[in-house]
Amino acid sequence: MGSIVILVASLIGVGVDIRGRRRAREIERMRKLVNAAVEGLVICDGETIVTANDSFATMVGMANRSLVGKSIETFLADPNIRSRLMSDQNDSIEAELVTSNAPIPVELIARTIDFGEKRHRAIAVRDLRSRKEAEAHISYLAHHDALTALPNRRSFNARLDQQMAATDINGENFVALLCLDLDRFKEANDLFGHAAGDEILQRVAKTISQLLGQADMLARLGGDEFAIIAPGLVTPMAASRLADSILDALEAENENAQTGSMISTSIGIAIFPLDGNDRETLLNHADQALYRAKAEGRNTYRFFEATMGIEAKERRLIEQELRHALARNEMRMVYQPQMQIDTGEITGFEALMRWQNPRLGDVPPTTFIPIAEESGVILQLGEWALVVACQEAASWERPLTVAVNVSAVQLYSHDFPQRVHSVLLQTGLQPQRLELEITETSLIKDTNRALSTLRQLKSLGVRIAMDDFGTGYSSLSNVRAFPFDMIKIDRSFIKSVDKNEQAAAIVKAVLGLGRGLGLPVLAEGIETPDELKFLAGELCTAGQGFYLGEPASMDAFRHLISDQGRTAGEPLATTPAFVRQGIRSRPR
Known about the structure:
By secondary structure, the protein is of the alpha/beta class. Helices cover 43% and strands 21% of the residues. The chain has 20 helices and 19 strands. The strands form three sheets. It has an eight-stranded mixed beta barrel. The protein has a five-stranded antiparallel sheet with strand order 2-1-5-4-3. Strands 7-8-6-9-10 form a five-stranded mixed sheet, sandwiched between helices. A hairpin with a 3-residue loop joins strand 12 and strand 13. Helix 15 runs parallel beside helix 16. The longest helix has 35 residues. It is elongated. The chain starts with a helix and ends in a 45-residue tail after the last strand.
């Protein structure tokens, strides 16, 4: 019996030892499996940690061995989360893991496993910091402009709606909306490159942001368009002080800038609730005020006025109709004669565009040309005018010149010289009979590029005339630097030149400049015999105006372009009377 008892005890001891070794091996194998997991993994008996992997230990900032025996409550303070983990639910749970440093956002997934012949809860812990950072970055990009770090249009719309909803329509506070558009930004971008353009936008964002209060918001709506929401204004005119400070700050930024690019902006201001009760209306009215600021000289601001709504509608209608004018054959060309003053000879004609629209009637060039330039339609209109004028001139028997106006948009188009060359080849017009009239204002945008274009045109044999000299950005250096063949004095100086001493002095100076440089001078806008007589006395080379001939279709001037029945050197029928013995009046 004793031997049997000893034998049985030995067998039991061996079994216990084998079972213990097996369990130890199982625990070791489980620990290795747990450590093999990249994510944190914790095995709990109830809420007590039995084992955890190195990833979890690293996450909470503790040694692996020190975790054994601790309660999961140490790291998950929320009892509701612990209760869900210990239940049979297998849902994914987001929580914050308490660590020795800052809390860590994690995702928890629990499963029931057999561990050491007992049911345990295995909790997978996924670190969400990278995902949360990525989500925050995506959310930031969704609400901010990547270049300037300013709020974007989406954030702007939400804030404007919020401020309008929080402002009592019948109260004493106002919300100002300022829409900003940088002046000539596209030209600076083309001239200095996109990198310089980006740098300009960043400088503008930084400069204006420094002027705003905590309640204000500056947003970039796109391109070079910015907008400011200024809530809590006691009086609408407080917005004008903000606009003044912006203009002054940008001017100071120009003085301190290292680059040669100049920054200025036009600002349109609309006030809630005076100028609109909803976001769309308020934005539309601020844009109309901005357009007025652009039209009235740029680098300034304008408040919305009720009349702007009517003007904006008219402008949109003109732009819409203008886009279809060529397709509908609504455009036509008229011609105004240019005369050699000392001999009375007609030397050529200036081609002028006219537009007659069924809905708008006769639209003057002073109205539709600026709109065509801003909308880009001028490229199609300008090329059409060039083709028509050259075709017409090529049909004349006499080799008179035809002058065609060129806008700044055409001048800076990359292939303008090639287009002119193509038109000359297409129409068969001799290059020296084509005169392109270019204003000085268009030259200052990019003098090097303009000079290169004019030289290419001159290499074709085309004549270049400086139009409207004396207005805008007139500079004697431009007359010297650019290859002009003629100077045209603006009509504003010719009006009453025989009576206005100041106008007379300017005209005399320009005529003297032309003689000194060897450039003929043409006076525009001659409307009276006295004006013509004054110009003849000052040895002005050529002239045009209503007194010499009103713009009309070429049919009215067929007798001037034909040599039939005319002796060489004989004055034309339209030669002013004083050239032929006395002055006679000419019908207007």
